[in-house]
Every structure is written in structure tokens, then in C-alpha cells.
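Margin note from the TA: students keep mixing up input and output lines. Inputs are the sequences; the output is the structure of the whole complex. Example:
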Amino acid sequence: MNEAVLKNARNRSTQNQSQKKTSGIVQKKRMNREDFVVKSILFLCAMVSILTTIGIVAVLLVETLSFFKDVSLLAFLTDTKWTPLFKPEHFGILALLSGSVLITLGASLVALPLGLMTAIYLSEYADDRVRRVIKPILEVLAGIPTIVYGYFALTFVTPLLRVISPDMGVFNALSASIVVGIMILPMVASLSEDAMVSVPKSLRNGAYSLGATRLEVARKVVVPAAFSGIISSFVLAISRAIGETMIVTIAAGATPKLTLNPLESVQTMTAYIVQVSLGDIQHGSIEYKTIFAVGMTLFILTFLINLIAQWLKRRFKEEY
Amino acid sequence: MSIIQMKNVDLYYDKHHALKNITGEINERSITALIGPSGCGKSTFLRTLNRMNDMIQGVHIEGEILVAEQNIYHADVNVENLRKNIGMVFQQPNPFPKSIYDNVAFGRRIHGMRDRKELDEVVEQSLKAAALWEEVKDILKKPAYGLSGGQQQRLCIARALAVNPQILLMDEPTSALDPISTAKIEELIGELRKQYTIVIVTHNMQQAARISDDTAFFLQGEIIEFDTTEKIFHTPSDQRTEDYIAGRFG
């Protein structure tokens, strides 16, 4: 009898349990207010940056259009002088554009090959201990304020260059572009190295097992496989060089000039914008509007570079 | 005729003694299977034969390995040339992210072959030798990653054959493949035996029994028994070999 009772009790308890289990699995949906609120706030956060960008582009467009009411697009693109601040006024963007191009070209010549070689060294040659020291140093270098680089250009690199070539001016494109190159070098090295390190080891082993040397593995396997990451690092670096302001303002001079001679003093688009912004220019005047036209040109230039990079990445992509 | 002789080979990963006093001979134009439980040192040993362990930091090797009577650990050995003569196929198919053609031509190109016609010839011969030509002859310019796993592994074999090695090392070449691809690769290995010396690491004892002439049984960094496959699988002289073959541990 005792046993029967126990059995019953056990049965009941398992029944109870199973009842407990089945109820509560499916519940009615509650209006989840919390979800809605969180989602809305996050959406607004996302909108801040988008709206700001739209706002910037809109202002640029409006002021640029108004600039082109006074100056013809043809003159803007073909005139070789840029003298909006004194008579006779000329608005030839080429004079500023050549300054920016010259500096960016020089900086790229310094930073891209050196950065790529640094990355190859770190990812393929250096042993772990060396890498662990150098990688953080590169990242610290990437964080130095550009004003420091600017003074470094003016007070150290320029005097050094003038020892080699004494008739060079105090303000010259060469010094600025070397230092802009030094500034973007850590970025190229660090990002390219990230891309190379993420190439699977099995690919390297495949090449080594065929009798490839370290250099062959780096050149023919790792760099091609990491190509899209390397191109991204190049583009970011070039965009930063074009947009770089402090170094060129301090070291490159303030003479808009259509030249590709790095020994001369030039003015970049960014440095011009600084010069005008700091001066007492009347709001709404043609001088005021020039900075928007220059800004727009800068914007289009970086946009074009990004497009080219996208194309390059698609064209040479190796997927693994 | 033996082509490889190991003489008292010891290998250390830093302090860890991974291979202990490995001694033995590997016959020319034969298939030698290396079996044993995970972590027993069979893959490590395989990599000593083409010095792929050189890549790993902290590896230290003692003893001698003679290939065609030359000690491959002698200071003046050209390692790249050694690896050219001793090809390797890995556990996971690892084609380069390039076209099928460029994968096979890779080795020859780095060793200086530039002529288009010669390269075409090498690519065709190697793909035929790896029993892949019929499947890929019309898509040579397509990326290798479009191939199936089994095809990729045969491509890797073709890539290794293209540099004309004399010895082929295979590190569990079928462990990532389905049974049909495995059967194809085993058949291919049987064909290759006519021209190459093959050393194959395998987890699959049936595979070792099916394809190999000799078998070495590794346990905890030592070769317990190294004899003809026939002997190892039917009348092993060591109790541990018998237990492993019978599946009592592993």
C-alpha cells in the first residue's frame, strides 16, 4: 500500500512538473516599449552624423554655386593664377591644386614604398619580439599632433635641406611633403601589416614548400592576397595627405603657384582656407566664397580617389 | 633502395622533446605511411624531411637526415632547392587565391621559367599527372577557389608535381575530403608511386593498409615499429602496435 501511495505521488509530481513546463513556453506578445525607445535613440545617433554630412555638403554646394555666379567655371579651371585677395583678382584653382598635388605626391613617394616595406618586414621577416616592440611605436607615431610635425618640418627638416641645397627658400614644398610623408607612414605600415598578417599561414606554407624564398613568398603570395587591404591603407594615407593642413601651412609657404618644382614655396588648398579663415574677410564677399569653392574641389578630389580605390580593389582582388 | 635515412633524429619545441631518436630508412619509389595517435609526432617528423620546421620558432633538431646520401641539416644546404626536390601536400587544400593555371605554374615561375609555351606544357603535364586535366582544361583561367575541395587538393598535388620533385610528402591529404574525393586521391597516389617516393601521414588505418608499402607506427615521439605494411598490419612484433591497429587506443 505504501508503495502504491508513493507511486501515485510520484506520478502526480511528474504530471505537475510537465504541466509547469508546458505553460509559459509560449507567451503573448507584450508591446515592447523598451525596444522601441532604444531603437529610436540609436537611430537618432546615427542620423546626427548623416545629417551633419548632408548639411556640410549643402552649405558647400550653395556657397560654391553662388561663387560661380561671380566667377566663370572656365576661368576657375583654366586660369593659372590664384590671387583673390588683391587686384587684379585671379581665380585659377590650378595654382592651389598643383600645391596640394605636389605635396601629396611627394608625401606618397616617401610613405607608400617605405610603409609597404615596413609592413613586409614586420609581417614576414621580424620575429615576434621585434614586432611586439615596433607595432605599438608605429601606432603612437600615428597619434602625434600635426602641429608638432609642422614645427619639425620648419625647424629641423628645412634647415637640413638647406645645408644640401643652400638656395632653397625657408618655405618650400619639399620639406613639407617629406614630413607629411613621415606623418602618414605609420598609418600605411600599420594598416598594411594588419592586412598581411591576416593572410592565412597555409598559403605561405604552400609557397615555402615549393621552394620559394621569404621575399618570393612576400611578393608573390602575401602582398597580392592582402592587396585590397594595402590599397585601403594607401587611400586613407593619401586622403590624409591631401587634407593635411597644419604642416603645409607652417612649412610650405603661402604662395599659390602653378609649379611642380618642390624647391619652391607653394600654397595648398587647405593652407589657403586657413589663411582666409584667419583673416578679416567680409561675410558674403567673393573672398569669403572662394574658400567654399576650394573646399568643394578638395571634397571632389578625395571622392575621386576613393572611387579609383574601389575600382582598384575590385580589379585586383584575390579572395581567400 | 633507400632514398632517405634518418639517424638518431631528436627534435625539441623549446623544452618539449617532440621526436625521440628517430632512426630508419625510406625506400625509393614506394609509399611509406606514418600512423599513430594525434600528437605522436608523425606530422612533425614529416616536416623535418623538407625542413618546414625551420619556420617554427624555438625548434631545435639533432641527428642526421640523409636524402640521397646528403645530410639535409648540414649548414651549407640550399633549403629552397631542397624543398623544390621534396614536394609537400597539406592537410587542408591550400591553393593560392589565383587562377588554376597560375597555381600550377607558381613553382616553375619562381624557379625562373618564363617561356609561355614551356609553362603551358608543365601545367598540362602536371594537371594530367594529378588526374585533374579533364575537369579543368577549359577553365584554366578561372580562380582555383571555384573548385570543389577534392579538386583543390588534386590541384595542390599538381602544383607540387609541377616543380619536378623526387619525393612527395603528404600530411593527411584526404582528412578534409569526402569519401569519393578520397578514393580519387588514393588512386592517384597509387599511380604516382611509379615515379615518386611518397611519405604520407594518415589518421586512417585502412588508408595506410590500402595504399602503402611500408608503415611506421609513431607513439609519443618515438617510432615503435617500422616495417612492411603487410607485417605491421598482420603480424606486428610490438604489443602496442597490435593494440593500436586493433583500435584498442588511439
